[in-house]
Design goal:
Layout lengths: L1 H41 L2 E2 L8 E2 L3 H6 L3 H32 L6 H9 L6 H22 L15 H26 L3 H9 L4 H12 L1 H16 L3 H6 L11 H11 L3 H27 L6
Antiparallel strand pairs: 1-2
Amino acid sequence: MKKSKYSSYEKKIKRQYASLMVPSLVLFTLGIIIPIIMCFYYSLFEWDGFSPDMKFLGLGNYINIFKDPQVMMSWRFTIFFSIANSLTANIGALLLATLLDSKIKAKTLQRTIVFIPCLFSSIVTGFVWKKMYSEILPGIVQALGLTINLKLFGSQSTVLLGLTIANCWQWTGLWMMIYLAALQSVPQDFYEAAIMDGANAFQRFFRITIPLIMPAIITCTVGLTTGALRTYDILVTATEGGPGRASNTIVYYIYNIAFKQKLYGYGSAISITLIIVLLIVAVAQLMFFRKKEVQL
């Protein structure tokens, strides 16, 4: 009898938990699943996105992707930008978090200063750094009598560096806060024991800190990589895909194809490939880093 009452109570609790998931599942389905299904459906047609005339192409749009050199150029820049942004922002955020978790003065103020750029929209960030590279920094260099070219958005060879700096300036503070929370959750007993065993600062960092904050490293790495692969808004005001098409990311190219050239079906096909790449990258990173996690 007691077992029956317990099992019924347990089922009731599970139903309550399941009911709490319903709103999220509905929103996820309406906002993510259904649009992806619709995107795949439209990718099978030649369509401008507005007229009722839709010509069925099957996998024709997907075949055209491999024939389009602009797609490959856009993917190339996107991948390079993603790698540069992920490495720079990840390392910078971890180093800043470690520094601001130490016993230095005015830690709260310094954390706030680093975090403030996250509050700006990427559109504003693009404007800010376009002004910095075109007028402010060159003016400072000229006043100092130097010959350094800091017009990074004006050259195909430097636009990647310029965008990486701008993007990292905006978002490093956000990932720093995640690392800070992870660092503060590491038990101090481990460090005290390591110091007693004669471990130096580098050994404590790589043997204790890194393994114990691996969940935060996973979150930051996946977030930075997938975020960089989806970069669009900062380009709208910073470079507009230029100079030439040197900073054309795959998302910016999808926008131009679908809405400016009115090749909605073709743009949908490229979008589906982007979704597949994002899933593969995220799953691969999760599988790689999960093996390195340490359970307390």
